[in-house]
Amino acid sequence: MIEKTPQDVASSTGPAFKSTGRYSALRLLREALSGHRNWTRAWRKAEPRSEYEVVIIGGGGHGLATAYYLANHFGITNVAVLEKGPIGLGNVGRNTTIIRSTYYTPENIRFYDFSLQLWEGLEQELNFNAMVSQRGCVYTYHTDGQRDAMTRRANDMHLVGADCIELDRVALKSLIPAIALDNGRFPIMGAFMQPRGGTVRHDAVAWGYARGASEAGVDIIEHCEVTGLRQQGGRVTGVETTRGFIGAGTVCLAVAGHSSHVAAMADVRLPIESHALQAFVSESIKPFLDVVLMFGAGHYYVSQSDKGGMVFGGNIDRHNTYAQRGTQWVAQEVAAEGVALLPALANLRILRQWGGIMDMTMDGSPIISRLPIDGLVMNGGWCYGGFKAIPAGGYTTAHLIARGAAHPLTTHMDLARFAEGRTVDEPGTGPFPWAH
Amino acid sequence: MNPARVPSRGRTEAAGDLMLRIPCPHCGTRDEVEFHYGGDASVRRPAADADTAAYAAYVYERTNPKGWHREWWFHAAGCRQWLEVRRHTVSHVIESVTGQP
């Protein structure tokens, strides 16, 4: 951890910010003895200064993680994170919290497995309980061809050191007693499982990274919307905001869902469309499912939260939108897939439903890249897989900013891949973002 | 409109309260489930002798506006015609629907 300078402390709002100190079982006991009245705020709410070395637009998972790794691993502490509203209320708080590295292309498996490795050490790294639960991710297969494709993917995962095992019907039924192996339309032949996959408490990820970044001197500035990107001689010099101009050596976009919207402020057109992805939570029930389960005959994923609710989702809504809600026919499709997989779900009521806006790229893979204007970089295009990528996305974006070159795990994620014919299109769908 | 069925902000009756209702010029107003989405209708194929940069922009780059959007919808379960729809990407209000010339 890097010591804060007096100027850093002076820039905070309200009473001088006091470091939280280390969290531990002993600390919890001590605070309990004083009735939990002496806990301090986990991170410092800062006022904008006139200039920073790095300005990160977006206080979501990737923006906060980028700031954290810049300050704690790359020695750049003169950093501001600007957030339009309060931090953590965008997609980092609106997803189904699944982590895994079950990808198809070796370059994506390597990147997402690096992320999984960072998740495995995240709580120790941040000294914050993010409730990382490696309960395993299970994928059903329903045809011989699908088994072949999943076997190939499992072998590719083994080649880069990731874990993946096959489960036959007996093993699958014993692992998930509620599963309907012989549903009439799509009988299940077996499944693959990544035991290291699982879930994380998504809100805690935002808070943990914010605390770690703030402790290292990063200014986290809420209610500060970027309205323009100022340039001089082909180089970005800072951002216009609702709280005035803020100068910056480097500006990083971490606004997935709205990347096109912010990049347009610099007249940059991106290979991205914004689409809504819905998520659902049922009423709470007793322990029912202790893995993450994914339906191979459609697009459906479900896990049970620690509060007991079934958390699930499916496909995107398939038309351009910036509205954080969702269309009814997709909700119906998702519910039908859930009932096909776990018929007992039909007895449950949906407690909450919401939508988040995804940066859907033209090849379905993310973009961590310099943009055509000097000093401007982006972390975005996460489609609907951004949550699991937060630690690796933040680390590699920090690397790109600090070292001026892509991290070796993200050289395939550059923007130029589209024009140069190097797209990383996992399902081979083509440039139709709503179909990825 | 029944207020109990309208949980979110900024939704208008014209936009439909549960899913899009697209006024097909051939078949009348129908639910979104009858249609397939076809993406941005504002992109234009460059001339045959245009350079690869122009073609890359045509295939991959999109304006992706937060606002009015011209887009293709195929009326798969109706007249089976491609329609050009002008729709708002925040309110989902549909301003106009035209068939192909």
Notable characteristics:
heterodimer, A: 436 residues, alpha/beta, 11 helices, globular, B: 101 residues, Folate-binding fold, four-stranded antiparallel β-sheet, disordered N terminus
Task: Walk me through the structure.
The complex is a heterodimer of chains A (436) and B (101). Chain A has eleven helices and 18 strands. Chain A has helices at 6-10, 25-33, 61-73, 106-120, 122-126, 144-159, 169-175, 202-215, 259-263, 328-341, 390-403; strands spanning 51-57, 79-82, 98-99, 137-141, 165-167, 190-194, 198-199, 219-221, 226-232, 235-241, 244-253, 272-284, 292-295, 300-304, 309-320, 350-361, 367-370, 376-380. In chain A, strands 1, 2, 8, 9, 10, 11, 17 and 18 form an eight-stranded mixed beta sheet that branches. Chain A has an eight-stranded mixed beta sheet with strand order 5-6-4-13-14-15-12-16. In chain A, helix 3 packs parallel to helix 8, helix 3 packs across helix 11 and helix 4 packs across helix 11 (390-403). In chain B, strand 5 and strand 6 form a beta hairpin. Chain B is globular. Helices cover 9% and strands 33% of the residues of chain B. The longest helix of chain B has 9 residues, at 52-60. In chain B, the strands form two sheets. A four-stranded antiparallel beta sheet of chain B has the order 3-4-5-6, with no helix packed on it. Chain B starts with 20 loop residues before the first strand and ends with a strand. Chain B is built from one helix and six strands. Chain B has one helix at residues 52-60; strands at 21-24, 28-31, 36-40, 68-74, 82-88, 94-99. Classes of the chains: A alpha/beta (436), B mainly beta (101).
How would you summarize what this structure contains?
The complex is a heterodimer of chains A (436) and B (101). Chain A has 436 residues and is α/β, with parallel strands linked by helices. Chain A has helices spanning 6-10, 25-33, 61-73, 106-120, 122-126, 144-159, 169-175, 202-215, 259-263, 328-341, 390-403, and strands spanning 51-57, 79-82, 98-99, 137-141, 165-167, 190-194, 198-199, 219-221, 226-232, 235-241, 244-253, 272-284, 292-295, 300-304, 309-320, 350-361, 367-370, 376-380.
